[in-house]
Amino acid sequence: MFGRDLIEDANVATLPAHVAIIMDGNGRWASKRLMPRFEGHRRGVEALRRTVRAASDIGIRYLTLYSFSSENWSRPRLEVDYLMGLVKRFVRNDLAELHASNVRVRIIGERDGLEGELADLLVDAENLTAANTGLTLIVAFNYGGRQEIATAARRLAEMVAAGTLKPEEITPELLAGKLHTVDIPDPDLVIRTSGEQRISNFLLWQSAYAEFVFLPLLWPDFDRSALEAALAEFKARDRRFGGVSEPTPPRQATSG
Ligand code: FPP
């Protein structure tokens, strides 16, 4: 089908390779309906499921979802426990389908201090799907961008202290190679729902040249049409990467 192939090629060329989403507004979604916040999170998982399916179907290569920030520990204990339970249930219930759909799962964030059963499930999800070649689903869990950069800087400092690296050899590429996102291209598009216009410690280093789309809808209402609206907005943007002519993204880190 000659015509259709041409159209599909054109669409793929304008698709962002990596979409990252700050899933915000679960609590407000529930409050508006006089429901407990938990219900907003539960419905948020349904939106997450819809979004993974849609992204995979559309042909997005990398999808990062901000699921739990390092600051979210300050929420009431019951809410934190509920969110942890949701993640465990998600892995238990959805891992087989993700694997069957050729999705590769990566988890970014601090593993230290996570409850053992949860930490094991995250490792299981990564191991089972490691060889898959479809969508890479990156779950940012117990993640904080400043901590990630500080840890990377500490690793470089340790190499300098050990005499294996000279300070003048430190480059952005070298530092990027020490981040959780090594081997993952920088996000092209960052979406935040709920009308808030903040980055909230999410992919601080990696989103240096990302386009941002802020949507008014609350995360539990997010669906394929919302994703497509954000992709259309992205397509209309003029990305110059700090230059003036043909876009050339800055070099990515490729090794650990
Ligand atoms: C923001 O809404 C949402 C979160 C902090 C958690 C997002 C988590 C999920 C959607 C489900 C768990 C993840 C997985 C991987 C299954 P909010 O509570 O800050 O909403 P508000 O700003 O309206 O209060």
Automatic annotation (TrEMBL):
Gene Ontology molecular function: transferase activity
Domain of life: Bacteria
PROSITE patterns referenced in this protein's UniProt entry, alphabetically: UPP_SYNTHASE
SUPFAM superfamilies in the cross-refs: Undecaprenyl diphosphate synthase
CDD domains reported in the protein's UniProt record: Cis_IPPS
Cofactor note: Binds 2 magnesium ions per subunit.
Matches recorded under Gene3D superfamilies: Decaprenyl diphosphate synthase-like
Names of the cofactor(s): Mg(2+)
Protein keywords: Magnesium, Metal-binding, Transferase
Keyword Magnesium: yes
Residues binding substrate: 25-29, 37, 41, 69-71, 73, 75, 192, 198-200
Pfam families: Prenyltransf
Binding-site residues for Mg(2+), renumbered to this chain: 24, 211
Enzyme Commission number(s) from the entry: 2.5.1.-
Active site: 24, 72 (proton acceptor)
Assembly and binders: Homodimer.
The family this protein is said to belong to: Belongs to the UPP synthase family.
Function: Catalyzes the condensation of isopentenyl diphosphate (IPP) with allylic pyrophosphates generating different type of terpenoids.
Protein name: Isoprenyl transferase
Top-level taxonomy: Bacteria, Pseudomonadati, Pseudomonadota, Alphaproteobacteria, Hyphomicrobiales
Gene: uppS
